[in-house]
Amino acid sequence: MLQLNFSPFPILESERLRFRRLTNEDAPEIFALRGNPETMKFIPRPLATTIEDALNHIKIINDKIDENQDINWAVTEKGSDKCIGLMGFYRTQPENFRTELGYMITPEHSGKGYVTEAVKTLLDFAFNTLNFHSIVAVIDSRHIASERVLQKVGFVKEAHFKEDFYYNNEFTDTVMYGLLKRNFTK
């Protein structure tokens, strides 16, 4: 079984981005992300309606880190400490050396290649430092931009479930992408 230890918290960097631990000071940015109908359009979770919702989300993330279960980072542009995105791994299955990738970025920072750059950095860490064998990404089939990012970094479509998820009074399709460590290239 995979043994995870996120202490000390791993701060990562890519060419243009820095990945650090979320703090309560990030609550306004997390509220802006999780309270925005556009950024949450393909994420079947209730919108954050208060700063308290954002603080609770940060606490849940940091509790999982402290318990060595899952890990998520606040993403910032190098030279700035302002959180522009939230990315990491959750629903981790250490017994299967497997985890799930999740990511979101502010609308004003999308379209700049940041998500692709960030995902490559996180995959490198997950496969080569944490020693995961496989990583899955589960997306709404309508989320074309997310699908493009996954394909760009080497994920392959493993399943398409028709109308398998009911949220906000509608059935939606779920698409599952996967990547094995042996198929990952930086």
Automatic annotation (TrEMBL):
What range(s) does the N-acetyltransferase domain occupy?
A: 17-181
| Taxonomic superkingdom | Bacteria
Task: Quote the protein name from its UniProt record.
Answer: GNAT family N-acetyltransferase
Q: Which Pfam families match?
A: Acetyltransf_3 (PF13302)
Q: Which InterPro entries match?
A: Acyl_CoA_acyltransferase, GNAT_dom, N-acetyltransferase
